[in-house]
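Quick start: what a row looks like.
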Amino acid sequence: MTEQFEMYDDPFKMLILLATLVSEKLGTELKYEQVPSFENETFSIRHEKFTYKKDGTEITWFEFLGRDIASTHDLTRSEYNKMFVECMASLYKL
């Protein structure tokens, strides 16, 4: 039996990774209290809110990225991983 590969065991760590990649793309340093704004056809991220446009999933946090995170959809780890991989790919137009 083959185990499914997951980038992270906690899908919200992938949100932090995505925010880090957005910051790098914009040439800024990620500040957890002020996530940079970015939007493309796949997702948007701005202070205290991430939106995955494909299915409307919204992830919010309170004041600092990673604090009191909540999602509008109860997705499996595999679904979160797929969502964030699609967002990362769209960031680099892959």
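That is the whole record. The first helix runs from residue 11 to 26. The chain has one domain: 15-91.
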